Input
Amino acid sequence: MRINARLDDSYEEKFLSVQQDEGKNRTIILKEALDQYFLKKLEQKAMTAREKNQKILETVGGIASGSENLSENYKRRLYQELKEKHDID
Output
């Protein structure tokens, strides 16, 4: 594939600087830049999936947290919480 691109002065300076510093031709520089861009996008997608999975795990983990005997004394705990909330003696 052949690509024609127009770069403003600042990008031209950056491109020429990389070309001079690295001693690479334009094709190699563009290929490496595309590889880095593609890798960054893949990492972002993986992070997004990882974050979603983390939220699911936190939610599921939250279900199991709390008092071990909550099913046995939930009415008493609810009554106490309501008394505290509404300042009832």
Notes: The CA atoms of residues 4 and 84 lie 71 Å apart. The chain has one domain: 9-85.
